[in-house]
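Re: that chain you flagged

S.,

Sorry for the slow reply, it's been a week of failed gels. I finally had a moment to sit down with the sequence you sent. For the record, here it is as I used it:
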Amino acid sequence: MQALQDRFEDPTAAQHAKARICSLRQGKRPVAEYIQDFCSLVAHLRDWPEHMLVYQFQEGLNKELYHNCLPWGVHRNLRALYQLATNVELNLMVYQECAAHENRPHRMPKGCPASRGGKDGALPATGEKPCWTLGACF
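Prediction finished late last night. Pasting the structure tokens below so you have them in one place:
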């Protein structure tokens, strides 16, 4: 297999992939798209150790997402980091949706996990704060 790759693969593919991966950024797009682009470049960087790939992946993450991944510790496994970033992004989206609706009285936003709530998402009249104002959406 290696002989086939050496013979038919573009010899500059690794150089191009290295340049592209160093400038790759998530920006405002979903992390799944960023992961897909990152993986397509990793395929050409067989000589890069995993810790360098992890570092480069984190460098390209959206800063808000990156900072929200930090409390989960240092990851040296790229697949685990992909999963963490995906989960944190999903939780951030749910939290932001919950926070956007927190000023609406007596209604729980659709999809917001409720620790307390009455029929059809109505909040109890006890004066307790809804779950999303306590940061419990994570």
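What I noticed first: The radius of gyration is 21 Å.

Talk soon,
D.
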